[in-house]
Design goal:
This protein has one helix and seven strands. It has 122 residues and is an alpha+beta fold. The chain has a six-stranded antiparallel barrel with strand order 2-3-4-7-6-5. It is globular. The termini are far apart. Helix content is 16%, strand content 48%. The model has no long low-confidence stretch (mean pLDDT 85).
């Protein structure tokens, strides 16, 4: 199946807190799956409808502080993961500090290549 995304996504680990703008009292915890310069994919127990704007707090394994941003749900698809039904959600960034995403992605790539070479990256 051909890749439909315009930009490469990197596998990533971390937690994302999603807060729908139309219901700011709601807080949904999600697992980060992958990230690109323009969006990310997450797994969550709760479904969010496409075109929902959300505030995001990304806590990535390879980044020392939370990255706060805004995004828009592009899709939510129910899938089976580890014998449980979860939602795979695609999020497009609306507002973020691009330097934070660049730094995180560079660190992910450096860590990936270091592992291939048998070295550690901090």
């Amino acid at each position: 199946m051909p890749e439909l995304r315009k930009y490469t996504r990197l596998n990533a680990e971390g937690t994302v807190i999603l807060r729908p703008k139309n219901d700011t009292s709601r807080s949904i915890k999600a697992d980060l799956v992958d990230i690109s310069f323009y969006g990310m994919g997450v797994y969550t127990q709760e479904k969010l409808e496409a075109d929902t704007d959300v505030k995001l707090e990304l806590i990535a394994k390879l980044y020392n502080e939370p990255i706060i941003m805004e995004g828009r749900i592009k899709y939510a698809k129910e899938i089976k993961r580890q014998d449980k039904n979860v939602f795979r959600i695609g999020i497009e960034f609306i507002s973020t500090e691009k330097k934070d995403i660049q730094y995180l992605m560079a660190h992910i790539q450096a860590n990936k290549y270091a592992k291939l070479r048998g070295r550690k990256v901090s």
